[in-house]
Amino acid sequence: MAPRPFSRLHRTACARPAFARLLATLALAALPAHADLLPAQISADSVPRPLTATPGDAAHGRALLLARENANCILCHAIPEARFSGNLAPPLDGVGARLSAAQLRLRVADNRQVHPSTIMPSYFRSEGLTGVAAQYRGKTVLTAQEVEDVVAYLQTLK
Ligand code: HEC
Predict the structure, then answer these.
(1) What is the CA(60)–ligand 1 centre distance, in A?
(2) CA-nearest residue, atom 3 of ligand 1
(3) Nearest CA owner, ligand 1 atom 14
(4) Which residues line ligand 1 (CB under 6 A)?
(5) pLDDT of residue 144
(6) Which domains, ranges and CATH numbers included, belong to the chain?
(7) What SS3 string covers the chain?
(8) For the segment 115-140, what is each residue's pLDDT rounded down to a tens digit?
(9) Mind listing the pLDDT tens digit for each residue in 73-119?
Protein backbone atom coordinates (compact mmCIF):
# COMPACT_ATOMS: atom_id res chain seq x y z
CA MET A 1 0.00 0.00 0.00
CA ALA A 2 1.33 3.45 -0.89
CA PRO A 3 1.92 5.69 2.16
CA ARG A 4 -1.01 8.00 2.67
CA PRO A 5 -0.30 11.68 2.14
CA PHE A 6 -0.70 13.99 5.16
CA SER A 7 -4.46 13.91 5.07
CA ARG A 8 -6.66 16.91 4.83
CA LEU A 9 -8.86 15.53 7.57
CA HIS A 10 -5.88 15.53 9.90
CA ARG A 11 -5.06 19.14 9.14
CA THR A 12 -8.59 20.38 9.78
CA ALA A 13 -8.77 18.38 12.99
CA CYS A 14 -5.56 20.00 14.25
CA ALA A 15 -6.92 23.42 13.54
CA ARG A 16 -9.96 22.90 15.77
CA PRO A 17 -9.57 24.58 19.18
CA ALA A 18 -11.10 21.59 20.99
CA PHE A 19 -8.53 19.32 19.46
CA ALA A 20 -5.74 21.72 20.40
CA ARG A 21 -7.04 21.78 24.00
CA LEU A 22 -7.10 18.00 24.10
CA LEU A 23 -3.50 17.88 22.93
CA ALA A 24 -2.51 20.44 25.58
CA THR A 25 -4.22 18.35 28.28
CA LEU A 26 -2.41 15.22 27.14
CA ALA A 27 0.90 17.07 27.13
CA LEU A 28 0.26 18.28 30.71
CA ALA A 29 -0.70 14.80 31.85
CA ALA A 30 2.59 13.50 30.46
CA LEU A 31 4.66 15.90 32.61
CA PRO A 32 6.55 14.20 35.41
CA ALA A 33 4.84 14.55 38.80
CA HIS A 34 8.12 15.44 40.46
CA ALA A 35 8.88 18.92 39.16
CA ASP A 36 10.29 20.81 42.14
CA LEU A 37 9.66 24.50 42.83
CA LEU A 38 11.84 26.77 40.74
CA PRO A 39 13.52 29.75 42.45
CA ALA A 40 11.54 32.03 40.11
CA GLN A 41 8.27 30.73 41.59
CA ILE A 42 9.24 31.90 45.08
CA SER A 43 8.78 35.49 46.17
CA ALA A 44 9.80 36.44 49.73
CA ASP A 45 8.12 33.78 51.91
CA SER A 46 5.50 32.75 49.36
CA VAL A 47 4.67 31.08 46.06
CA PRO A 48 2.20 33.57 44.57
CA ARG A 49 1.04 31.54 41.57
CA PRO A 50 -0.84 28.25 41.90
CA LEU A 51 1.15 25.19 40.81
CA THR A 52 -1.66 23.95 38.57
CA ALA A 53 -4.37 25.40 36.36
CA THR A 54 -7.07 23.42 38.21
CA PRO A 55 -8.10 25.20 41.43
CA GLY A 56 -7.48 23.28 44.65
CA ASP A 57 -10.22 21.01 45.96
CA ALA A 58 -10.59 21.74 49.69
CA ALA A 59 -12.51 18.51 50.39
CA HIS A 60 -9.76 16.43 48.85
CA GLY A 61 -7.16 18.49 50.72
CA ARG A 62 -8.96 17.78 53.99
CA ALA A 63 -8.96 14.05 53.23
CA LEU A 64 -5.22 14.19 52.52
CA LEU A 65 -4.52 15.99 55.80
CA LEU A 66 -6.57 13.53 57.83
CA ALA A 67 -5.21 10.39 56.16
CA ARG A 68 -2.30 8.82 57.97
CA GLU A 69 -0.65 8.12 54.65
CA ASN A 70 1.59 10.28 52.49
CA ALA A 71 0.90 13.66 54.04
CA ASN A 72 0.42 12.63 57.67
CA CYS A 73 0.21 16.26 58.71
CA ILE A 74 -1.57 15.32 61.93
CA LEU A 75 1.47 13.39 63.07
CA CYS A 76 2.72 16.84 64.12
CA HIS A 77 -0.15 19.32 63.78
CA ALA A 78 -3.50 19.47 65.53
CA ILE A 79 -6.39 20.33 63.24
CA PRO A 80 -9.88 20.99 64.58
CA GLU A 81 -11.40 17.87 63.03
CA ALA A 82 -8.79 15.30 63.97
CA ARG A 83 -9.43 13.48 67.23
CA PHE A 84 -5.88 12.26 67.67
CA SER A 85 -3.05 14.42 66.51
CA GLY A 86 0.48 15.33 67.43
CA ASN A 87 1.80 18.46 69.09
CA LEU A 88 5.27 18.72 67.59
CA ALA A 89 4.09 21.69 65.54
CA PRO A 90 1.71 24.64 65.96
CA PRO A 91 -1.98 23.74 65.63
CA LEU A 92 -3.30 24.58 62.15
CA ASP A 93 -6.52 26.04 63.54
CA GLY A 94 -6.77 29.62 62.22
CA VAL A 95 -3.83 29.23 59.84
CA GLY A 96 -6.00 30.36 56.91
CA ALA A 97 -6.44 33.71 58.64
CA ARG A 98 -2.78 34.07 59.64
CA LEU A 99 -1.25 33.17 56.28
CA SER A 100 -2.21 33.87 52.66
CA ALA A 101 -2.68 31.12 50.06
CA ALA A 102 0.71 32.11 48.59
CA GLN A 103 2.41 31.74 52.00
CA LEU A 104 0.64 28.46 52.72
CA ARG A 105 1.74 27.14 49.31
CA LEU A 106 5.44 27.60 50.09
CA ARG A 107 5.10 26.09 53.56
CA VAL A 108 3.35 22.99 52.24
CA ALA A 109 5.59 22.65 49.17
CA ASP A 110 8.92 23.26 50.86
CA ASN A 111 8.84 24.61 54.41
CA ARG A 112 12.65 24.45 54.52
CA GLN A 113 12.69 27.59 52.42
CA VAL A 114 10.98 29.37 55.33
CA HIS A 115 12.47 27.49 58.28
CA PRO A 116 15.78 25.93 57.14
CA SER A 117 16.07 23.59 60.12
CA THR A 118 12.42 22.52 60.24
CA ILE A 119 11.39 18.96 60.99
CA MET A 120 8.44 19.35 58.58
CA PRO A 121 8.92 17.33 55.38
CA SER A 122 9.21 19.19 52.09
CA TYR A 123 6.14 17.83 50.33
CA PHE A 124 6.93 19.16 46.88
CA ARG A 125 10.64 18.65 46.64
CA SER A 126 12.57 15.69 45.33
CA GLU A 127 16.08 17.12 45.07
CA GLY A 128 18.60 17.88 47.79
CA LEU A 129 16.95 15.80 50.52
CA THR A 130 18.57 13.27 52.82
CA GLY A 131 17.03 10.35 54.64
CA VAL A 132 14.23 9.89 52.10
CA ALA A 133 12.31 6.59 52.22
CA ALA A 134 12.90 4.44 49.12
CA GLN A 135 9.39 4.86 47.75
CA TYR A 136 9.77 8.66 47.63
CA ARG A 137 13.28 8.90 46.13
CA GLY A 138 13.25 11.11 43.05
CA LYS A 139 9.56 11.90 43.63
CA THR A 140 7.67 14.49 45.58
CA VAL A 141 5.46 13.28 48.43
CA LEU A 142 2.48 15.26 47.12
CA THR A 143 1.73 16.07 43.50
CA ALA A 144 1.34 19.69 42.44
CA GLN A 145 -2.43 19.22 42.42
CA GLU A 146 -2.39 17.73 45.92
CA VAL A 147 -0.41 20.74 47.17
CA GLU A 148 -3.14 22.97 45.74
CA ASP A 149 -5.84 20.81 47.37
CA VAL A 150 -4.11 21.04 50.77
CA VAL A 151 -3.68 24.81 50.40
CA ALA A 152 -7.39 25.16 49.52
CA TYR A 153 -8.31 23.27 52.69
CA LEU A 154 -5.91 25.24 54.91
CA GLN A 155 -7.54 28.44 53.65
CA THR A 156 -10.82 27.27 55.15
CA LEU A 157 -9.24 27.12 58.64
CA LYS A 158 -10.01 30.72 59.57
C1 HEC B 1 7.25 16.08 61.25
C2 HEC B 1 6.33 17.10 61.70
C3 HEC B 1 5.49 17.84 60.70
C4 HEC B 1 4.66 17.32 59.71
C5 HEC B 1 4.44 15.85 59.36
C6 HEC B 1 4.02 18.45 59.09
N7 HEC B 1 4.44 19.62 59.66
FE8 HEC B 1 3.80 21.49 59.18
N9 HEC B 1 5.09 22.30 60.55
C10 HEC B 1 5.88 21.57 61.42
C11 HEC B 1 6.58 22.50 62.30
C12 HEC B 1 7.55 22.12 63.43
C13 HEC B 1 6.16 23.80 61.95
C14 HEC B 1 6.53 25.14 62.63
C15 HEC B 1 7.51 25.94 61.88
C16 HEC B 1 8.77 25.18 61.64
O17 HEC B 1 9.54 24.92 62.58
O18 HEC B 1 8.94 24.80 60.50
C19 HEC B 1 5.23 23.63 60.83
C20 HEC B 1 4.60 24.68 60.19
C21 HEC B 1 3.56 24.54 59.30
C22 HEC B 1 2.78 25.63 58.76
C23 HEC B 1 2.94 27.08 59.13
C24 HEC B 1 2.09 27.29 60.37
C25 HEC B 1 2.12 28.69 60.92
O26 HEC B 1 1.24 28.97 61.78
O27 HEC B 1 2.99 29.48 60.56
C28 HEC B 1 1.84 25.08 57.94
C29 HEC B 1 0.78 25.81 57.15
C30 HEC B 1 2.03 23.65 57.96
N31 HEC B 1 3.09 23.37 58.79
C32 HEC B 1 1.25 22.76 57.27
C33 HEC B 1 1.49 21.38 57.22
C34 HEC B 1 0.73 20.47 56.39
C35 HEC B 1 -0.43 20.87 55.51
C36 HEC B 1 1.28 19.24 56.57
C37 HEC B 1 0.92 17.97 55.85
C38 HEC B 1 0.86 18.05 54.40
C39 HEC B 1 2.34 19.38 57.56
N40 HEC B 1 2.44 20.69 57.92
C41 HEC B 1 3.11 18.34 58.06
C42 HEC B 1 6.00 20.19 61.48
C43 HEC B 1 5.34 19.29 60.65
Answers:
(1) 18
(2) 120
(3) 89
(4) 65, 71-73, 75-77, 88-90, 95, 98-99, 104, 107-108, 111, 115, 118-121, 123, 150, 154
(5) 95
(6) 35-156 (1.10.760.10)
(7) CCCCCCCHHHHHHHHCHHHHHHHHHHHHHCCCCCCCCCHHHCECCECCCCCCCCCCCHHHHHHHHHCCCCCCHHHCCCCCCCCCCCCCCCCCCCHHHHCCHHHHHHHHHHHHHCCCCCCCCCCCCCCCCCCCCHHHCCCCCCCHHHHHHHHHHHHHCC
(8) 999 999 999 998 877 777 787 778 88
(9) 999 999 888 888 888 899 999 999 999 999 999 999 999 999 999 99
